[in-house]
Amino acid sequence: MPDPRVGEILVQPDELAHRVRELAEQISRDYEGKDVLLIGVLKGAVFFLADLMRQLQVDCEVDFMAVSSYGSSTDSSGVVRILKDLDASIEGRHVLIVEDIVDSGLTLSYLFRMLGGRSPASIEVCALLTKPDRREVDMPIRYVGFEIPNKFAIGYGLDHAERYRNLPYVAVLNTP
Ligand code: IMP
Ligand code: MG
């Protein structure tokens, strides 16, 4: 039986695979001859990051952070709590923050400032999805997969109350 909460498909599996390959090629060119440290923001970015990293042609390592933003389930408050910090120092490293989705941009701008303060050699952001209409802070996002409309998205790592991360596509969450 189809799940009535899984709505319109925004990005199909083949579009995801194709765009991930393009992003990986671009990143591999930009970081040629350098070591990249991918920093995945748990948990949503894990799926995208795993696919992206397997396509990279440069030396790379991965580390993870877990953050939670206070506030209601579908709105970010900008107050970010670190639940799990990185395992190692990023001093002198070329850091690429990998995010599933940038909505208001509040979570990312906080992370960007915090990690930027730890003296990396460089720091950039790669986000699979962005919702430009929702942006509250101006964030430099070097690599973007897809721009999506202002709807709550699920699948390919994105959850609603921890469900639907396993969908192989990105879809809209239907509100009953
Ligand atoms: P921001 O701080 O408003 O940019 O929100 C960032 C975080 O909220 C993302 O990393 C996601 O975890 C979550 N989020 C924002 N929009 C969505 C969505 O449409 N679906 C699932 N999670 C979302
Ligand atoms: Mg997230």
Structural features, described:
This protein is 22% helix and 34% strand. It is an alpha/beta fold and 176 residues long. The protein has a single domain, classed as 3-Layer(aba) Sandwich (Rossmann fold), CATH 3.40.50.2020. Strands 4-3-2-5-6-7 form a 6-stranded mixed beta sheet. It has a 3-stranded antiparallel beta sheet with strand order 1-9-8, with helices on one face. Strand 5 (94-102), helix 3 and strand 6 form a beta-alpha-beta unit. Helix 1 (13-30) crosses helix 2. The longest helix is centred in the N-terminal third of the chain and has 18 residues, at 13-30. The chain is globular. The two termini are 17 Å apart. Bound molecules: inosinic acid and magnesium ion (MG). Inosinic acid is lined by residues 44, 69, 76, 99-108, 152-153, 158.
Summarize the structure.
The protein is an alpha/beta fold and 176 residues long. It contains three helices and nine strands. Helix 1 (13-30) packs across helix 2 (45-53).
